[in-house]
Amino acid sequence: MTMTLNEAAKSCRKAKGTILKAIKEGRLSAPKDTQGRYEIDPSELHRVFPLTTSDQSEKPTLTPATDHENRIEIERLRAELKAANTLSENMAETVADLRERLDREGEERRKLTAMLTDQRAGQGAKRGLFGFLRSV
């Protein structure tokens, strides 16, 4: 009885790519059937990938280093996102504060302008010393 590539990978707890690489390198002989699938003999498979008691109890680890690196990268990106969100919130608060200050300054400027306009109108009625002399 022969096994497919997938069955062989599960049997010896290796990745399919590892078994396929062994076939392509010639370390494992496996002819193809009429449909182009590999027919792997179990004895041939276990000659190249021997079964041990630890192999049977452990789950296959395909790329633990890559998984670890991905988790580190994810955590780094989460930290960057959190910093960017904090910066964005701070900038939004600053913009709101500046708008409020600008509105207050504009209102204050309008009040001062109104006061100056009223004083000029009042000063226009008083002519001063020379205006008094001209009217006499």
Describe this structure in words.
There is one protein chain. This protein is mostly helical and 136 residues long. The protein has helices at residues 5-12, 16-25, 42-48, 53-57, 64-125, 128-135.
Q: Can you summarize the main beta sheet?
A: none
Q: Specify the number of helices.
A: 6
Strand content: under 5%
Number of strands: 0
Radius of gyration: 43 Å
Class based on secondary structure composition and strand pairing: mainly alpha
Q: Span from first to last CA?
A: 134 Å
pLDDT averaged residue by residue = 82
The arrangement of helices and strands along the chain is HHHHHH
| Overall body shape | rod-shaped
Uncertain spans: none
Helix content class: over 70%
Labels describing this entry:
mainly alpha; single chain; 136 residues; rod-shaped
Layout: helices, strands, pairs:
Elements lengths: L4 H8 L3 H10 L16 H7 L4 H5 L6 H62 L2 H8 L1
Summarize the structure.
This protein is mainly α and 136 residues long.
